[in-house]
């Protein structure tokens, strides 16, 4: 078991990796007047907790203001007061809506994240970005509020379907190529063991990934200074691919293609070394994250024009300037879309 603590405006956040979630929750909940668990419906029966366990719908369907209001209603019914605790158990969408609900219930109560997918373990569980979809828009309602604890129980990965499991490695490789050369080398050198879900290797990779992300969150928690933009590497194009394909492409595979595309764009802009796109292709292919995708270019460009990082006619784009080093550049949206069309039309 490994652990670390990162600082936030809401107080210290403790991250526990490779620990039984029931054991951890038993210790944590003793400090609260009450608790309630909101868990993805397909794993609610696996939750080990002394407080009520309430199943909720996961995925984008469940990430709604209606779900959040249902959580608030049920917390009130079971008697959670301001010194009570919400516990979210599930993938990223569940953690998002539970964290958001905790932030608005009685003007804010503490919450704990227990991620159950590889993607949520290395990404969504840490950072404090919570929210729900509404009006046909993703995350249009939300706040940044940090959890008190993040509990990584690797046993949840045992039953995760292989494609869902591998999806999370897109984010791991993102941390490696932008911030952590040692992590990238370790992932590529131990791909077989990681694919076979070796617990010791997973503990190390998840620990390093979350430490990397926490180092960014600590200095740009509210996403104001531009530092947090590195966490969106590959996501400008990746989110556009998801949108243009009506989310038929998984998040991990969309971000994987997005990173390769943005690396090619970085080369054309003169920031990224020429070998980085092929390095990314090799690393991502090891985890079966590079597949041919049929994308309508007009829909892709339209989705990019709606990117949240856009400011007027420009967009802040993170670029790799060397493996493990990054910067943010301001690119004209017209120039960027033209480069994406020319460099990424034939991907992979």
Task: Describe it.
It is an enzyme of class 4 (lyase). This protein is α/β, with parallel strands linked by helices. 45% of the residues lie in helices and 20% in strands. The protein has helices spanning 21-29, 59-62, 65-77, 92-104, 118-124, 162-167, 169-179, 181-189, 191-195, 199-219, 235-244, 251-269, 276-285, 297-305, 333-344; strands at 2-6, 13-17, 35-40, 53-56, 85-90, 110-115, 129-134, 137-144, 149-152, 310-311, 314-322, 325-332. The protein has a 7-stranded mixed sheet, with helices on both faces. α7 (169-179) crosses α8. The longest helix has 21 residues, at 199-219.
CATH topology of the largest domain: Dehydroquinate synthase-like, alpha domain
Our count of helices gives 15
Instruction: Give the % helix.
Output: 40-55%
Low-confidence runs of at least 5 consecutive residues: none
Mean pLDDT: 94
Tally of DSSP β-strands: 12
> Main β-sheet: number of strands, strand sense, barrel status?
7 strands, mixed
Cα-based radius of gyration, to the nearest Å: 20 Å
Keywords: Cobalt, Lyase, Metal-binding, NAD
Domain 3-dehydroquinate synthase N-terminal: 55-163
EC number: 4.2.3.4
InterPro entries: Dehydroquinate_synthase, DHQ_synth_fam, DHQS/DOIS_N, DHQS_C
Task: Give a nutshell description of this structure.
One of its GO terms (biological process) is aromatic amino acid family biosynthetic process. With 348 residues, this protein is α/β, with parallel strands linked by helices.
Helix and strand arrangement:
Layout: E1 2-6, E2 13-17, H1 21-29, E3 35-40, E4 53-56, H2 59-62, H3 65-77, E5 85-90, H4 92-104, E6 110-115, H5 118-124, E7 129-134, E8 137-144, E9 149-152, H6 162-167, H7 169-179, H8 181-189, H9 191-195, H10 199-219, H11 235-244, H12 251-269, H13 276-285, H14 297-305, E10 310-311, E11 314-322, E12 325-332, H15 333-344
